[in-house]
Amino acid sequence: MKSLLKIAFVLGIVVSFSSCKDDLKPNYQYMPNMYESVAYETYSESDAFNSPAGLKGKEGQIPPTGSIKRGFVPYDIPNTTEGYNFSKSIVNSPLDSTQVDMKKAEELFVIYCAICHGTAGNGKGKLVTQEKILGVPSYADRQISVGSVFHVQAYGLNSMGAYSNQMTQNERWMVSAYVMELKSKL
Description:
Elements: H1 2-20, H2 32-35, H3 81-87, H4 102-112, H5 114-117, H6 126-129, H7 146-155, H8 169-185
Helix pairs in contact: 3-7, 4-8, 7-8
């Protein structure tokens, strides 16, 4: 009887191991979600994420709160009259003299500013002489500082638009230094 139990036991083990592996049929999986997880599309809609703005499932496209793009340096002075007046008190650029490339600043000024303000900063640019735009002031007539020129480039003023998308912050500081140089020559 003992040998019969041993034979049955060994036969049971052999049958159980041989029944798990069959090359002709796929095996059963104990927890299939662990082996074959549900794939999620990055930009597909789902009920897992609902934003306060009402966007449904677009979590791959919304930047996190408080994030800034790479290379961007925030400008903390607000776009108000008080902010503009405060910017007039900034008389020194955060760039040191080795970082200010006047040749590059002149090129940027000619590209973005000279069409209205003129290459000398006298307010006689090509659009003004052709009477397309009127009322562009000369730098000699304005009470400006490096900070106020930078502020106007960042936010725009009156009919002048902002140039913060066209120039980096360092480039705007360089153009501001160049404008102050033009003002001293007028």
